Amino acid sequence: MDGAAQARRRWPASAAVVLAAAVAVTALQGCSPDAEGAAPLTAELNQFRDNYGSQIIEIQVSNTSSVSLTVFSADMSSSLFPAGTSWRAKPEGTEVPPGQTKSLPATLPAPSCGSPGADADAAPSAGAAPAQVKVSYRQGSTTSDVQMPAADPFGVLARNRSELCLAQDAGRIARINLAPELEVAADGRTAVVRLQVTPRAAEAGTPRSLVIESIEGTTLLAEAPDAPWPRGITVVAGGSPGEFRLRFRPARCDPHAVAEDKVGTLLPLRLDVGGRRGVFKVPAGADLTGRIHAFVTAACPAH
């Protein structure tokens, strides 16, 4: 057999291999959600400062494609919050243009709390808390569901879980609140808020006491130099109520201090509750918040 005949006999086998490879590539492309085999979305968790006291987080969904899409729902799951949380759109959905991000608010449920002081209950570093987000969306005429990991670069889940677990344990020992009245000094330069601590009846199986290690200032409230705030206050379940007068001065007097206030009337207490330590923020309430804002505005020199 000459060389030309051999080449003619080999050609059909080579063509069959090429054809098989082409079919395989086509089949793989057909199984992908898009041309690159990836969903056109990414997810991240965040929290706006004005929602710190309400445990509302933001499920931030970004459109990584070149075509608009419409989001209908987003469901977050995490071992730190076993019940999960969800966001739902209006019937028409929420449009996310190409290259843009939408923040979808969702309220956190009760957290999973271990025993105070246990290693498993230590707050993980920022971004370490695992979370998944399932998003239902439509792009073009196709509606899809996609499950993806949600980045948590600011440790939103870990911080909220730590605060909620601390508040839960502290609440079993005492009710801690701020009285709604504000006492303004005669010279108008300082004022007093009253921190009220009312112990609850002792419960079996829970810590019997907590320690208010320190009281910290806020963006609006600063400790008056001549009247230091108390430290090392021990509160015992079943004990007597206590009230602590906290004299303060404005912490800031720039024009934006009150106008842009988000957390200035959340008073941070550094607590130790049976080995669980952290910051418990006591909200001022609507009436006291208004009075504090009015005081700071009046006490600060005009700008």
In words, what does this structure look like?
The termini are far apart. This protein is α+β, with helices and mostly antiparallel strands and 303 residues long. Strands 1, 2, 3, 4, 5, 6, 7 and 8 form an eight-stranded mixed sheet that branches. Strands 9, 10, 11, 13 and 15 form a five-stranded antiparallel sheet that branches. The chain has helices at 3-30, 156-173, 256-259, 286-299, and strands at 41-46, 56-63, 69-78, 81-88, 94-96, 101-107, 132-139, 142-151, 174-178, 183-184, 191-199, 209-215, 221-223, 233-236, 242-250, 266-273, 276-283. The protein folds into three domains: 1-31; 41-154, Immunoglobulin-like, CATH 2.60.40; 164-299, Immunoglobulin-like (Sandwich). The chain is flat. It is 21% helix and 38% strand. A hairpin with a 2-residue loop joins strand 3 and strand 4 (81-88). The protein contains four helices and 17 strands.
Oligomer: single chain
Q: DSSP strand (E) fraction?
A: 35-45%
- Outline type: flat
- Average pLDDT over all residues: 85
Total helices: the number is: 4
Which short descriptors sum up this protein?
Immunoglobulin-like, 4 helices, single chain, 38% strand, 3 domains, five-stranded antiparallel beta sheet, 303 residues, eight-stranded mixed beta sheet, alpha+beta, disordered N terminus, 17 strands
